[in-house]
Structure formats: C-alpha cells, structure tokens
Amino acid sequence: MPQLVIALIITVLVIISFSVQVIPLPLTAMLGALAMVVFGIIEPADAISAFGSDTVMMVAGVIIIGNAIFETGLAEKLGASILNLPIIGGKEKRLLLIVMIIITVLSAFVSNTAAVAMFLPLVASIAQSSNGKIKKKNCYMAMGIASVVGGFCTQSGSTPQMVAQEILLETDGLRGLTFFELTKIGVLIAIVMFIYFLTVGYRLQERCFNFPEVPNTSTTQQTVSQSTWKQVVSGLILVGCVIGFISGVLSFGIISLLGACACILTGCISQKRVFETMDWSTIIVLGGSIGFANGMEESGAVNLIGDALVNSFGQNGENVLLVFGMIILLTALLSNVMSNTATVAVLAPLGINVALKMGADPITFVIGIIIASNLAFATPIGTPPMTMVLIGGYRFSDYVKVGGLFNIIAVVVTIFAVPLLYGF
C-alpha cells in the first residue's frame, strides 16, 4: 500500500480519536507520530525531534515562569488589582474584550505564542481573585484565537507568513509582502472575532463548557512578608523575558528556559514544584502533533490533494473565485490537523502555480493561503497558542464547537474579503 494512502488512513484515525476521546489527547498525538514511524513514513528521529523544538521549549519555560509567579503570590496581587479597575468592574465580558484586544495588538508585533503565554497566568490570577465571577474556561480559548488572529495582522506575528515570504522571494518575477500588507484582512477578521466572542461565541461557551473550572496548579502559601522580594524577582524575570521576546536577541525557547532557570535559582519556585505543576499533557500533545505533521508532509498526501484540485479546476480562468475558495478551504482544513507552517510551505507554491495558470495575481492567492493556514481553531493541534490553552480543561469537542464555528465564519470572510481587498 502506498505511503501516502497509509498516511491518510492514519490521519483519519487520529482525527476520530481526537473527536471521541476514548484515548487521551496526548496518547493519541504520540500514537499518530509513532504510527508514521512504524509504517516507514518518517524516521524515528523525526517523530521525537519536536520535543526539542523551540516552540516546545518555550511552552515549557513559560509554564514554569507562570507557576513561579503564582508561587510567590505576585499573580494573585496583580489579578486583584486588574479586577478592581473601574473599566472592568468584575464583569467577565469586559475583561475578555480588553484582554483580547491587548493580545491581538501585541501578537501583531511579537510571537503570538509569546503573547498568549504572557497572559495565561495573569488571567488565571484574575479568575482566582474574582470569587467565581470570572472563569478561565470562558477566557482561555478566546485568548488563544485572539493571539492567532493578531499574529497574521503583520508580517512578523507568526511563522506561516515568514515561510510564504521566502517562497515568494524565491519565485522569479514575484515580489515579497510588505510589513503591513496583511493588516487589512487581519483587522477585518479581528473585528468579526470580537463581535463573535461578545455574542454567539460567548453564549456558546457558557452552554458547551459545562465542565468544572480547572484549579490553578500553584497556590500561595507564604505570608506576604516572606514572599514580597520573590514577587519582585519573579516580576522582573517575566519582564526580562518579554523584553527578550521583543528584542529577538535569542530564540523564544532559549529565553523562556533562561527565565525558568532564573525562577528556580532565585527560589521563586522549587525544583519539586516545577515537576509537580508542569502541564505534561500540553507538552506531549504539542510534541506528538508536530511529529505527526511531519509524516503528513513527508508522505506526499497533501500534494496528492493539491494536484487533484489543479487537474479538476486549475485550467479554467473563469473559475478563479471557485478555485481560490477551494484552496482556502483545503488550507484551513489541513491546518487543523497538521502544522500550519507545514501547510503553508506545501500549499503556497501550489497557490502560486494555480494563480499563474489562471492569469490571477499570485500575491492574492498567497495572502489567502497565509490567512487560511492560521485559521486552525477547531482542534488543539494546528497552532501552538491553541495547544497552550488546553490547560483550561477543554475537550476536543469544545474546540470543534466554539472554535470550529468561528473557523467557518473566518474562512467565509477570507474567501470573499481577500479578493475584494487585494484583487485578482
């Protein structure tokens, strides 16, 4: 049996397992990656290399820093201060909107993964100080989506557009994207997102997220007099990491791990508490999913789907919007089950090829593919921010219901708005 067929079968089985959750998400992600190895689709090293990736290191480091902030009591103090701001007034919707706006703007200029990572412990502390008025489960998923949307508002917010930029520059006769070229469509989708989570999305969350609130992994047990200096130290470490994220002097993973080590060395969190409070499920899901995505890419399964699309519709210049829409839909679907970076790396050349054959503007096709590759809200495995918010206690079905509906809305907006804003 051809490897690409085996890869497609494995993909279908993984999606089914993610959906029914008879097997835990981390185990499913690992089994998917290991199955790719067993059937010779990828090398063993490719299946586990993701656990040493910069993204996984960053997530692990930020979790340690966030837990250290809780251990010292700083998170609780900050949370209480923000909760008491007049503009919020203890209202969950107001807090959600403000946090989403901040994360969206921040994600446009720094890593979207870093942006959501900064706010997870902060929102957790606010929820802890609210006496049940504010729930993490009603904020985390929206925060993850906001970071992704903000990430594609500029050229530097997330990896897919950087990959696409390189592909454009390497293609004869094509120019690269300007820094703010994606801002028009990004802002439009951001506005739709704000409206969604203040109306339909918020009500959907209240109905679907019927599980108990996940408790914070760290609790402040020291007295204020004992831990005040540690609060200052943990705060300075967090600020230092943020500056490092923005400056780009080192990779995000290295900066996060340096911050985590600093927290341990200064006594903000003990080594024992590091292992007790680490969210191993998130780490395993992220690492396993990247390994699984490598198998999808190596097998040629994605290329098979793309070639079928070109052969069916790519020769008729009258069907530009139809073909564009199908490519956007294909990109969004694949991004929900494999790395969005891998998706754009495979489909951007396809989009350029199809556009040139049909006499359309390749830049418009690439912009659409960039946006669609980021629209991975229906599963926890498409983008790191959506994996990180798993700590809110979400089930796979929660992603499908709440994130999936917005995913559909955003795809429709992309299909029709990108041609209007950029032209064919």
From TrEMBL:
Keyword Hydrolase: no
Keywords, in A-Z order: Membrane, Repeat, Transmembrane, Transmembrane helix, Transport
Protein name: SLC13 family permease
Organism, scientific name: Candidatus Flavonifractor intestinigallinarum
Cellular component, GO, one term: plasma membrane
Keyword Membrane belongs to the record: yes
PANTHER family: BASIC AMINO ACID ANTIPORTER YFCC-RELATED, RESPONSE REGULATOR
Domain Citrate transporter-like: 18-350
BP term (GO), one: transmembrane transport
Transmembrane segments: 29-48, 55-75, 95-127, 185-204, 236-265, 320-350, 362-382, 402-422
Location, primary (coarse class): membrane
Organism domain of life: Bacteria
Localization, UniProt: Membrane
Topology within the bilayer: Multi-pass membrane protein
